[in-house]
């Protein structure tokens, strides 16, 4: 890749296990000599962003290939009566409207505990210390249900000084509705519930975080085909809906580049092929293959 205009921003989208592909792209860009001045991410993108901030991108392939579903998904159903709003994509008609209302209530349930995610992050980051290995601003993005807005926590050169701890912010960003419970935060005497906004589909996140940058590299985990992803299997409905919402959300974020006054060059890298991997398919072998596809795509991009 030709010399990029500085400063360079990095935006990392969500996508659950699909983030193994993103990890491959990021790892190869870093090993190829790329540096970023500002980083932002939501959901699994925030975890990859943390790896970059702490100089741990070289560890990512080993983490993904060592995954097993029970390391991440531990069944513990529950329900939070929170005013969670979803993107209204239903078709006209009574039954479609009723189905959408059911989806809204179902999204307030969760199937799995977030304890394994906490355990992994606390173990992974236990020896990192407070300061990042790189002096950069890192924005961890979740969605505040009661405010119906993104909740963006900025960590300036290290994991300190906020209403949320660094690990709490990462877990909140990964709190997929229907899958994991929300994370609570108290601010100005009010309590908010934070979730992963990527599959809600309400795209209030934009690239204005990178105002002043000369270049932005955006690494997504969605393909255009995900807008019509077929539903099949036990988690087929969730997979289809999550893919569609994530694709809509990611596209709207990319489109927001036109509102940045500094008019940076924006490079959007996304999977060139079907990764043969589900959002919740935390299988080491499959994630390893997706990671390697990401490495190859990054190599192509670096040669441009």
Structure overview:
The chain is an alpha/beta fold and 304 residues long. Helix content is 34%, strand content 19%. The chain has 9 helices and 10 strands. The strands form 2 sheets. Strands 1, 2, 5, 6, 7, 8, 9 and 10 form an 8-stranded mixed β-sheet that branches. Helix 1 (19-31) packs parallel to helix 2 (44-53) and helix 1 crosses helix 9 (284-302). The longest helix is centred in the C-terminal third of the chain and has 20 residues, at 236-255.
Could you outline the blueprint of secondary structure elements for this entry?
Blueprint: E1 8-12, H1 19-31, E2 38-42, H2 44-53, H3 60-65, H4 69-72, E3 74-79, H5 94-106, E4 109-113, H6 115-124, E5 137-144, E6 149-156, H7 166-173, E7 183-187, E8 190-195, E9 215-219, H8 236-255, E10 265-269, H9 284-302
Parallel strand pairs: 1-2, 1-9, 2-5, 9-10
Antiparallel strand pairs: 3-4, 5-6, 5-8, 7-8
Low-confidence stretches: none
Between the first and last Cα atoms, what is the distance in angstroms? 5 Å
> Nearest-angstrom radius of gyration?
18 Å
Q: Tell the overall outline.
A: globular
- Strand content range: 15-25%
Element string (H = helix, E = strand):
EHEHHHEHEHEEHEEEHEH
Structural class, please?
alpha/beta
Mean model confidence by pLDDT: 89
Query: How many β-strands, per DSSP?
Result: 10
Determine the fraction of residues in helical runs and give it as a percent range.
25-40%
Characterize the quaternary organization of these chains: single chain
Mind summarizing the main beta sheet? 8 strands, mixed
How many alpha or pi helices? 9
